Amino acid sequence: MAPRARSRTASRTRGSAGFATVLALALAATVATADVQALPTARQAPRAKAAGVSYDPRLAPYYRQHLDWHTCGKPAARPTGSTSAGAGAGAGMRMARERGFACATVRVPLDYADPGGAEVPLAVARKPASGPGGRLGSLLLNPGGPGGSAVDFLTGYAGEHYPEAVRARYDLVGVDPRGVGHSAPVRCLDGPAMDRWAATDLTPDDAAETAALRRSFHAFADACRSRTGKLLGHVSTAEAARDLDIVRAVLGERRLDYVGASYGTYLGATYAELFPYRVGRMVLDGAMDPSIDSRRLNLDQTAGFETAFRAFLRDCARREDCPLPAAEPAANRALAAFLTALDRAPLRTDDGKRRLSEAQATTGIIAALYTEAAWPALRRALGEASGKDKDGTTLLSMSDAYYERDADGQYAPLMAANAAVNCLDAPPAFTGPAAVRAALPAFEKASPVFGRALAWTALNCADWPHPATGTPHRVTAAGAPPIVVVGTTRDPATPYRWARSLAAQLTSGHLLTYEGDGHTAYNRGSTCIDTTLTTYLLTGTPPAPRTTCH
Q1: Is 262 a catalytic residue?
Q2: How far apart are CA 98 and CA 328, in angstroms?
Q3: What are 502-514's pLDDT values in tens digits?
């Protein structure tokens, strides 16, 4: 678990231009309205109910709605009769960076138990198949989070840099889940308050500091409640998965073809559980394990970041500019001493209003562990901060990029949505400080450097204004066609063991292993991974058992 986040993918970020770019690269005609057969039929209704979704004819208008495609960045008219629970998806939409993108708004019910009530507008972007070759359909992409914008991921990266063979045969589609990005985003703290929140001490040394941290979490949650309203209680992954089925239908597709990364694997697995008969070709890259509770999830991620940090140290020891001792125990001690010193005296930065705190330095370091491409920047940042100049500017920019803070001091809604979704999806890891203190030995054993901060961070859902609506459970998706689950052996955010577990849970799961570093594997430089997954997406043929790429 990264600071204040459950599972973050290295999707496109804003902030420091250089670091954000490194992190990012680690990452038309109107569609006919869906016909009646795109809905679950009466014959299919028993299967839907068995999967946890009861057929509700009141949803028919949502499944049959028509999409008004328009140039991205130009808002479309508000859907007739909409009683949206949030701002329209067109408002504030960025102009797509490349030509050929179209955007639209899909209406979904705020509450599936009351489809006739308020609605939520979902932002959808599409890049039509470029050819040559016959069009295979729509391929929905989710870059993770929870809280990462699929629309921004598509228009800012995937639409031009996804494998050419996939772009040729599929319409690439990004849908921001409810409460995320351009889809009525969850709102919490404003920019200055977020600055203070991001700098809050995550390693309290006494009762006063513990109380201050608890107040920070409570203030964040209270701001989310007051600024977001009713939507805050309806941003669960289960609801987002049901939204995906409506999107599938209005795109005119009988099955959902999907690539999800990091948290996107949890969203995809949830869809497969609810709608196994609607699954098409599905890739779950950097998989989460839906069967584990929040405490275990956070502990596993803590161990995952320790694994990634050790890989960084081994590489760092071979570099002339490595600012840490070559031996691992000595390097751990040196970094721990550096962070402890920051706890006492934050470092100056080029931002005259902000200094680098221990919490922000920890966030910046962990952010760089998501991809080995960021390791040179991390060496430089640690050298600047621990050297004679004691300059925390680069580490602060890394923290800002992770939190998606722009140069004007404004934050994208990523972290707000991240907390909102996570706190609904499962009961909190800890209910109070005493439970955290009891767990500290296990977390510090998992990571001597990061364990303490990551344990306290897991207290963030204890004061959430809405109780969890989900519980950890195994997902089998019986009846679904082959689903490919991808695991990277030294993935920091979604440990490899999670991919093995999810692939084993899924009745039709096929595990594909990448022996390497970094978070997720597809389209990150491995010819073996890219060829295997592209072949599956184009032909439906999954990898052979025990396939391992390097």
Answers
A1: yes
A2: 45
A3: 999 999 999 999 9
